[in-house]
Amino acid sequence: MSDSDDDVPQLSAAALAALQEFYAEKMTETKQEQPALTDSYTVGSFKEDWHMSQFWYSDETAARLAEEAIQQAGKQGRIACVSTPSVYQTLKQLESQREDESHCVSSVLFEFDRRFTAYGHEFVFYDYNNPLCLPEHILPQSFDVVIADPPYLSEECLSKVALTVKYLTKGKILLCTGAIMEEHARKLMGLKICSYLPKHSHNLANEFRCYVNYDSSLLS
Ligand SMILES: C[S@@+](CC[C@H](N)C(=O)[O-])C[C@H]1O[C@@H](n2cnc3c(N)ncnc32)[C@H](O)[C@@H]1O
Known about the structure:
This protein has 220 residues and is of the alpha/beta class. The protein has one domain (50-212): Rossmann fold (3-Layer(aba) Sandwich), CATH 3.40.50. The protein has helices at residues 13-33, 59-73, 85-97, 155-168, 182-189, and strands at residues 78-82, 106-111, 123-125, 143-148, 169-178, 192-193, 208-212. Strands 3-2-1-4-5-7-6 form a 7-stranded mixed beta sheet, with helices on both faces. Strand 4 (143-148), helix 4 (155-168) and strand 5 (169-178) form a beta-alpha-beta unit. The longest helix is centred in the first third of the chain and has 21 residues, at 13-33. The protein binds S-adenosylmethionine (SAM). S-adenosylmethionine binds at residues 52-57, 83-87, 111-113, 126-129, 149, 151. One of its GO terms (molecular function) is protein-lysine N-methyltransferase activity. It is an enzyme of class 2 (transferase). Keywords: Cytoplasm, Methyltransferase, Transferase.
């Protein structure tokens, strides 16, 4: 057997370039799946996955909804973000900029997408198909405000999400979903449609609206 270089299998320059490109893409994808924790509170730091019906809000909408939740939760209030990662992320950003700590709120993200386990104990795995399958430490009526945006525009999905929302909330509910869900939102949770129009980072075919069960500036 010879040990000369001639016996070592060689890749052509083109094959080598393709392989390097493949690994470079893989590295980028991996970074996208798990952004550094410091960046992970930026809306869009986790790419939308349309298989999970993920449509992130525009920065303006995420900020408006987060500010609304903070105002309604009150001093040291608790906010449940049900299938609304962008609102959770924006709440974390706003809280990190806050100077007066006595006013701070706390928030928990209830989500199906396990990439958000990056948020540690503030992430709770949630599948709307099992609406009351929640960890024991999540007590009933333990959140001042619940904000929810169900993955599907169907009565079946909204009625299950409504069970979770009613379990979690002390009273206040802020829902974002399609305009076509207005009647179901009223019947299931007593919600009124708002004038404020939520926007997404990509335009959606369906008209979206916000709904509340309390006096809100979003209404007018
Ligand atoms: C229409 S998006 C709402 C996201 C919101 N617009 C935002 O920017 O935060 C629906 C959300 O439901 C989540 N989701 C998908 N399948 C779910 C399931 N089986 N149970 C609960 N949530 C689910 C998605 O991951 C996504 O965050």
